[in-house]
Amino acid sequence: MTPFTCGLKGRNLVFTVLFCISAFGLTTYLGFNGQFQHRRMHFIFREHKPMHHQFGLENPGENGQKLTLNLEKPPSDLETYRFPAGLSEGMKKSIEKSVRWMTGLKEPPKFLPEYKNPCWYEDFDPLIGKGKIYRDNWYGMFHPYAKKNSGAFKSWEFNLYSWWSQNKKRLRCIPYFYLAGIAKCGTTDLFQRIRSHPDVADGLLKMSQWWGRLAYNTAGNGSGVPFIDFVDLFDYPARVIEKYTCTTCPKLHHQIVGDYSTNTLFDNDYWIRLLGNNPQLHEPNITTAHYIRYFQPGAKILAIFREPTERLYSDYLFFYKGVKSPERFHSLAKQAVELFDNCTKIFSVRSCAYNRTLHSQEALRIVRLRVGLYHVYVNDYLRVFPRDQLLFLRLEDYHNNMNESLNRVYNFLGLRDLNAREEYKVLRKGAVNSRSKNNTKIGDALERTKILLRNFYAKHNDLLAEALGDDGFKWHANEIKQPADNGPEKIAS
Ligand SMILES: *[C@@H]1O[C@H](CO)[C@@H](O)[C@H](O)[C@H]1NC(C)=O
Ligand SMILES: *[C@@H]1O[C@H](CO)[C@@H](O)[C@H](O)[C@H]1NC(C)=O
Ligand SMILES: *[C@@H]1O[C@H](CO)[C@@H](O)[C@H](O)[C@H]1NC(C)=O
Ligand SMILES: *[C@@H]1O[C@H](CO)[C@@H](O)[C@H](O)[C@H]1NC(C)=O
Ligand SMILES: *[C@@H]1O[C@H](CO)[C@@H](O)[C@H](O)[C@H]1NC(C)=O
Ligand SMILES: *[C@@H]1O[C@H](CO)[C@@H](O)[C@H](O)[C@H]1NC(C)=O
């Protein structure tokens, strides 16, 4: 028996994974807050709606239920498969070239057809030697959780090496879905509950930040983090995904893994460097969304939003490390709004939202106004991905009816319904409220700050509501009294 912990982060987030050799082979147990949950082998699928964009194979399961999977060969109209409509040939070439540069791969992998999750096999040379697999992994060396990561990598290698050697193959997977935003909107709580689903495997980290940031630039370094270092984060879940198939469709590997980097949606800080973008235009033509779509056309993107004024104050209390007070917040917020409004007198809102120079000015760095301009980012994803590959939630709804919001997420991800016992386990725990004692003492934002910020965000919320066809995103005054804060996120996202 080999117990090991992969401390993801935070107080109550230590996961223990135990391998037990039983008469039936290797059975994986996953622990959550000391509660052990047996991953059972019997699965029934929820009807997975066929999607026009996903060129999938429909495999009839029990009671005519279906599972859509990746096809080995992309459809003949590869173009429309990997690119949104209306892109010029030059733009397509730029995306191809950039992704080649970012991933080091000549072309995106052909995902295995019998896997719901995007996965592929890589040759494995047993002579490579134990201790070398993750030795140079960036996340194991430089990430803020490097120490924990390298500990987890060691355990993974210990457990997986002989399996890979035996097979001379190593299954590689990238996330099936991305919880792409947004910081201080309940992402930590949602993240924990999504992966409580028995068919969702766990990656190493919550915040890999690869697509949105690290692919282009590591902190204080001109070069990006290698793609393969990102893929390494999913090696253990890849083994879980490889191991389990559903009993009603025994050849199908139905488990999935996700990425939970809450900056993916809005972080395009390095857009000026991306091929196909022209700094003279003052705003990006190509964003991270294009790269993800090109590399994994079936990717699902979900995000949770919160009334932006409440989000902003919570973000300030959480990320700013200097002396904090509602008065200071007020004066910074006033400057921030003025800086942004000054920018929009000359440039478009979208241009200002993506302007790194503007947002590195002190007031905007501390009061991260741009993060709440949800409509800019949502519209950019709507332009690139088919609507049914995107899901946007509100923290307020999540708090009022967590069961319903979670079911929407599970449904969106094509996950089966939970049975009563599983549902109880997932819903039992109340929402995480992590506003620290010190930050609670600082008190609420001033009324005049709230008015200032609500006025600022009102037009942006209207645009979000319009883009999503849902007036809930206007956050009417009667629901502004806010629910609890979300969990800890030590890394600014
Ligand atoms: C992006 O490129 C398209 C052509 O592919 C062009 O029509 C459009 O104006 C460009 N937009 C921006 C913001 O550069
Ligand atoms: C910085 O980049 C160089 C290559 O240009 C690489 O060798 C080095 O490991 C990187 N350092 C960090 C901290 O990422
Ligand atoms: C970003 O904003 C600054 C002002 O803060 C402006 O000088 C600069 O031209 C803008 N950059 C782009 C690419 O629009
Ligand atoms: C905004 O622009 C006005 C007019 O140009 C200027 O007086 C003011 O200082 C600017 N505000 C900030 C915060 O830079
Ligand atoms: C959660 O939602 C599902 C599906 O709508 C329903 O069957 C179930 O009874 C709900 N559970 C609770 C605790 O409300
Ligand atoms: C909370 O405040 C106290 C006194 O102001 C300080 O000593 C302590 O370090 C703070 N704790 C944190 C986690 O910031």
From TrEMBL:
<feature type="domain" description="Sulfotransferase">
    <location>
        <begin position="179"/>
        <end position="416"/>
    </location>
</feature>
<dbReference type="InterPro" id="IPR052654">
    <property type="entry name" value="CS_Sulfotransferase"/>
</dbReference>
<keyword id="KW-0472">Membrane</keyword>
<dbReference type="InterPro" id="IPR000863">
    <property type="entry name" value="Sulfotransferase_dom"/>
</dbReference>
<keyword id="KW-1133">Transmembrane helix</keyword>
<dbReference type="InterPro" id="IPR027417">
    <property type="entry name" value="P-loop_NTPase"/>
</dbReference>
<feature type="transmembrane region" description="Helical">
    <location>
        <begin position="12"/>
        <end position="32"/>
    </location>
</feature>
<dbReference type="GO" id="GO:0050659">
    <property type="term" value="F:N-acetylgalactosamine 4-sulfate 6-O-sulfotransferase activity"/>
</dbReference>
<keyword id="KW-0812">Transmembrane</keyword>
<protein>
    <submittedName>
        <fullName>Carbohydrate sulfotransferase 15 isoform X2</fullName>
    </submittedName>
</protein>
<dbReference type="Pfam" id="PF00685">
    <property type="entry name" value="Sulfotransfer_1"/>
</dbReference>
<dbReference type="GO" id="GO:0019319">
    <property type="term" value="P:hexose biosynthetic process"/>
</dbReference>
